[in-house]
Design brief:
By secondary structure, this protein is an all-alpha fold. It has ten helices and no strands.
């Protein structure tokens, strides 16, 4: 992610600003500046907002083809992060107005995209093979994960940091962490 402002930490951040900062760090991006934190946070949520809408539509209509497409796109974002279509849409349509451009996703965000793609493909397989209840349960988990991400906590990136042995970092980047200043 690139910004047009120089990064420098604010001496004091409100609880909401601290939560946004923690989310950005948890995603694997560098320390945001106080001036750009809100815009960076919003930019990072562009993809989950679009996907959340698609997940709800796909769940409501029980469309396996939509879930296959979403799974393939998410996995494409993992293997070719520089060519992420969601970042390209954001950079073309929104970045000129915000001054924030999205670059290739860091490893924690890619891991989260991998998990989302795995859920989408599992849902599609469940729908295709007639396991509708399994699909509904998986859809519930997928939508719940998206809602928590839109609320400032990404389960996938949290799990990434835990699996990498960075438990302290993961805990300090929780949305409710009092002061993540020493996040490293």
């Amino acid at each position: 992610m690139t910004t047009y402002a120089k990064a420098q930490s604010a001496p004091y951040l409100s609880r909401a600003a601290q939560s946004k900062r923690n989310f950005i760090l948890q995603q694997g991006f560098p320390e945001p500046s106080a001036e750009t934190c809100d815009r960076q946070y919003s930019a990072i949520l562009f993809q989950p907002r679009l996907l959340g809408f698609a997940f709800v539509v796909g769940s409501g209509l029980q469309l396996p083809t939509l879930f296959v497409a979403l799974g393939v796109i998410l996995w494409f974002c993992v293997v070719a992060p520089r060519f992420n279509p969601f970042n390209a849409m954001y950079n073309r349509a929104v970045a000129p107005f915000t001054g924030i451009t999205l670059t290739a996703s860091p490893a924690p965000r890619r891991f989260s995209q991998f998990l989302g793609g795995a859920f989408c493909l599992s849902i599609a397989a469940s729908l295709i093979t007639g396991f509708r209840m399994t699909a509904v349960v998986l859809e519930g988990f997928l939508i719940a994960g998206t809602v928590t991400m839109l609320a400032g906590f990404c389960v996938g990136t949290f799990v990434f940091h835990l699996l990498r042995g960075r438990v302290g970092f993961a805990m300090r980047t929780l949305p409710w962490a009092a002061d993540g200043r020493s996040v490293v």
